[in-house]
Amino acid sequence: MKVTLITGASGGIGEALVNRLAERKQDLLLIARNAEKLEEQCIQLSKRFGINAQFIAADLSKPDTAEQIFEETQMRNLEIDMLINNAGIGSGGEFSALSLRSELDLLQLNISSLVALTHLFLPQMQNRKSGTIVNIASMASFMPIPYMATYAASKAFVSSFTQAITQECIPYNVHVLLFCPGLTKTNFNAAAGIDNEKGAGLSSDYKNAPAQTPEQVADEAVKALDQRKQFAVSGRMNRLGANVLALIPNSFITRNFAKLYRKRLKM
Ligand SMILES: NC(=O)c1ccc[n+]([C@@H]2O[C@H](COP(=O)([O-])OP(=O)(O)OC[C@H]3O[C@@H](n4cnc5c(N)ncnc54)[C@H](OP(=O)(O)O)[C@@H]3O)[C@@H](O)[C@H]2O)c1
């Protein structure tokens, strides 16, 4: 059976994408850690949309998880015709003060598991001469961000890696989309531990900053897929921001981000 595999499917942008794809009658394989939530989602999706929705509860911040997921899909006879690498976590604060374990887990989830899932499922797509891979990066991929150093660097990796394999995949008719959301109203900041006073230093009026809803982001991602785009930024203001950022040297951006953050936190 052909399915779309989506990581981080239990909340935020991933859950919104799941709902959009289910409306289009795509069969789905949902991945996240919260088994209870995933089970409930699958029951509801099957009832509402008449699709086959399955899940695997798995922690992608662990090194062997991607391989375990691959093996499970083979056992279930699932053909992954679309892979959406959406699961990701952030972190904020002074790099040296952050927990090394959490930073390394972030790299495993945002980078290594994304690379592993792509490496495991891509050969089958190449053999079939069809398939789609969507990698979710971020506006943060466009610049180094002091006090959010590891997260921004992880998304820069996703961007560079995805743009490179996009070209490698063209002879195999495998479509690759690099999709970059900006600030979105999800659980992301709370999960990253940056919904606190230190997080506020990363953006003064963060709570009032213009943000998209996960549904708006999912709509734009689906539109980019329909248009077979290789790269898309979600939101008009973010697209404008991305164009402006491209003109500004990183040294200027980082110096000013750092100054602002230190000023707000009176460091
Ligand atoms: N929100 C934003 O402002 C924003 C902006 C730009 C880019 N993005 C990117 O968009 C993507 C989705 O973010 P979001 O805002 O939707 O975040 P979110 O609301 O925190 O949702 C994250 C999803 O990933 C899952 N997840 C977290 N850790 C996991 C792990 N170790 N293993 C497996 N699944 C895990 C979560 O489910 P469980 O907790 O059940 O595992 C949840 O389903 C991320 O890659 C993020 O970097 C977000």
From TrEMBL:
Gene3D superfamilies from the UniProt entry: NAD(P)-binding Rossmann-like Domain
Protein keywords: Coiled coil, NADP, Oxidoreductase
GO cellular component term, pick one: cytosol
Family matches, as Pfam families: adh_short
Signal peptide positions (record): none
Coiled-coil annotated spans: 21-48
KW Repressor (keyword) present: no
Example of a GO MF term: oxidoreductase activity
Family: Belongs to the short-chain dehydrogenases/reductases (SDR) family.
Stated name of the protein: Short-subunit dehydrogenase
Organism: Pedobacter metabolipauper
